[in-house]
Design goal:
Helix content is about 30%, strand content about 25%. It has helices spanning about 80-115, 120-130, 220, 235-245, 250-255, 265-275, 295-305, 340-355, 370-375, 380-385, 390-405, 450-465, 540-555; strands at about 1-5, 15-20, 30, 35-40, 45-50, 55-60, 65, 70-75, 130-135, 145-150, 160, 165-170, 175-180, 185-190, 195, 200-205, 360-365, 410-415, 420, 425-430, 430-435, 435-440, 440, 480-485, 500-505, 510-515, 520-535. The structure holds oxidized coenzyme A.
Length: about 550
């Protein structure tokens, strides 16, 4: 066994913060396991362990600022005996000396090769010359392919030097590649979701030359300039060497702020989140600075699977989630799984409630005469084998009100950019069934007789209760009536059945004293609650809807007009 101190490698910037320590003393790690996550203002990156072993000491602290060469952890390298160890140590020392010598030679060489043209100077030169320039993926610290997770520019975009071109992500780091020039994007070679590696073309851009050369003067100014245009010089060949010189700076220089806005998370966590299509903004981070750790993501996924709210998580739109309660601790309970229909209705209601700014208006319709007429039809109805309830009258009156007030017979489309006015009148009726609520739709209500509507309503309600409705019998509604009249209650606030914009709640008919100008007289008053989407309908529109509705319900002869 030999002990080794692992140091902070080249992180591409002067310093970075230790955001997360991914190991603990005593941990057995494999080669490439993440030791720490670092974050600079340029990038977030994981530092992998170069070899397998056991962590014996951690030499950094979370929050500490570190630089290349700082001690990171001490590990006991696995499977090496003492003899080998001393050999190894020696050879390591030698190796490291050799390596250092090599490195220094290499860096001297690099320095030499860059002497005539330092990276910024190359970029400056290209910028000054103008013309088409190919921008390639700089040294991203690995020979492996990495994912292109975002392409930030498109053809024709005017961009400035330093603007982000693409966001790349490997298992170890996420980084933005900034533009080395200012100019116009001519073509983009990388696509979101594709893979790329150091040296690949990112894009070709027309560089806005500082001294924008006039075509005929170009040869005079710089006859040997090969990067003038893609016609005279294939970008891949002409630009690459220059590009690689100018793109030499690694991660830190090239990388920019970790993508994803305000969410702090390491690349591995981001990758995992993408694989699960999870918006990291929804996950509460328990790490330093609220950083989202792998465990946070795991807890979040677990809670979604179990349909539980994670600790501290919100129920959407910033609403604190309702905590789970063990009801059995207070007494005997019977728990049974919610039916599919129940869950579907719940989801629809929730969606409507959260998306639609609801307003509910109330009124009483005087249906004394209507009731007298309806009751007078009883014998005829029995003969026909139909039950004439208030529902067909309500359907007819709503159809008249929808036609007179087209704003109610509409839906919002294109994210509210378009209002779709329907030229047909299909009305849904909420039906209470043992399995849950369903809303069959009566088509062309305006064209049907009261008898037809009575028959169809009864048929649809029966089918609903027997769960025999076809999907198309529950589609295409323009407006909904929810009648609790035969059940009870004086009023309620129905939830709009989106994408419809209005719904009428009907409560129990009661006899009320109504002032007729001279005296109070008993009248049969039907309590109505009209809920609507305030994005599509104003209070005045709703007032007008009620006027038509009450006029028709008050005197159904008006249907003939
Ligand atoms: N006030 C007083 N009595 C009423 C009434 C009202 N507003 N509306 C209906 N009634 C009476 C009917 O006249 C009938 O009485 P008779 O048998 O003496 O004639 C009785 O109540 C039963 O009517 P019905 O319910 O069979 O028929 P309907 O056409 O009124 O309603 C239907 C049909 C399918 C809408 C209804 O059965 C139903 O399921 N309602 C519940 C809807 C619901 O759950 N809405 C809530 C949605 S939000 O949670």
């Amino acid at each position: 066994m030999s002990k080794e101190t692992i140091k902070i490698p080249d992180i591409g910037s002067d310093s970075a913060d230790v955001i997360e320590i991914s190991v603990a003393v005593g941990d057995e790690v494999a080669a490439e396991d993440s030791l720490v996550v670092l974050e600079s203002d340029k990038a977030s990156m994981e530092v992998p362990c170069p070899k397998a072993g056991k962590i014996t000491a951690i030499l950094v602290k979370e929050g500490q600022s570190i630089s290349e060469g700082d001690d990171l952890v001490e590990i006991e390298v696995a499977g090496e005996d003492d003899a080998a160890e001393s050999e190894e140590t020696k050879s390591k020392d030698t190796k490291s000396e050799d390596a250092e010598a090599e490195e220094s030679a290499a860096s001297d060489q690099k320095a030499e090769s860059n002497q005539d043209e330092s990276p910024p100077a190359a970029a400056e030169k290209a910028q000054e010359e103008g013309g088409s320039q190919t921008v390639s993926v700089p040294d991203i610290g690995t020979d492996d392919e990495v994912d292109v997770i975002e392409v930030c520019v498109s053809e024709g975009d005017e961009i400035s030097e330093g603007d982000s071109l693409v966001v790349l992500e490997s298992d170890k780091a996420s980084m933005e590649i900034p533009s080395p020039y200012s100019g116009t994007v001519e073509s983009v070679a990388l696509k979101e979701g594709s893979k790329t590696k150091t040296g690949d073309q990112v894009l070709v851009m027309r560089v806005a030359g500082a001294a924008a050369p006039e075509p005929e003067k170009k040869p005079e100014r710089k006859p040997e300039a090969s990067a003038e245009s893609s016609e005279s010089s294939p970008p891949a060949k002409a630009d690459k060497p220059e590009q690689s010189a100018q793109d030499k700076p690694t991660l830190g220089k090239q990388a920019s702020k970790a993508p994803g806005g305000e969410v702090y998370a390491g690349p591995a966590v981001r990758k995992l989140a993408r694989e699960f299509s999870i918006d990291l903004k929804a996950v509460s981070g328990s790490g330093p600075k609220g950083r989202v750790l792998k465990e946070d993501l795991q807890d979040y996924v677990k809670s979604l699977v179990e349909n539980k709210a994670p600790a501290g998580a919100t129920g959407g739109a910033g609403i604190p989630a309702v905590p789970e309660v063990d009801f059995a601790q207070f007494g005997e309970v019977v728990a049974e799984p919610a039916s599919k229909l129940h869950k579907l209705t719940g989801a629809n209601m929730h969606r409507s409630w959260l998306n639609v700014p609801h307003v509910t208006q109330w009124d009483d319709a005087d249906i004394t005469e209507l009731e007298a007429f309806r009751k007078g039809l009883k014998a005829e109805a029995e003969q026909k084998g139909v039950k004439m309830t208030p529902m067909p009258f309500l359907l007819k009156a709503c159809a008249a009100a929808l036609k007179a007030n087209p704003k109610f017979n509409a839906s919002l489309a294109d994210n509210g950019e378009t209002i779709v006015y329907k030229q047909y009148v299909h009305i849904g009726i909420a039906v209470d069934t043992p399995a849950g609520l369903v809303v069959p739709v009566v088509r062309d209500v305006d064209k049907k007789s009261l008898w037809e509507l009575a028959e169809e309503t009864a048929e649809l309600a029966a089918k609903a209760k027997d769960r025999k409705l076809k999907p198309q019998e529950m589609q295409g509604g323009c407006f909904t009536i929810s009648s609790l009249g035969n059940i009870g209650g004086q009023g309620f606030t129905p939830i709009v059945n989106t994408p419809e914009v209005g719904i009428l709640g009907v409560s129990k008919l009661t006899v009320k004293p109504v002032w007729n100008g001279q005296e109070f007289v008993p009248r049969e008053m039907l309590p109505l609650s009209l809920s609507y989407d305030h994005r599509a309908i104003n209070g005045a529109d709703a007032g007008r809807f009620f006027s038509t509705l009450n006029e028709v319900l008050g005197d159904i002869r008006r249907l003939l007009l």
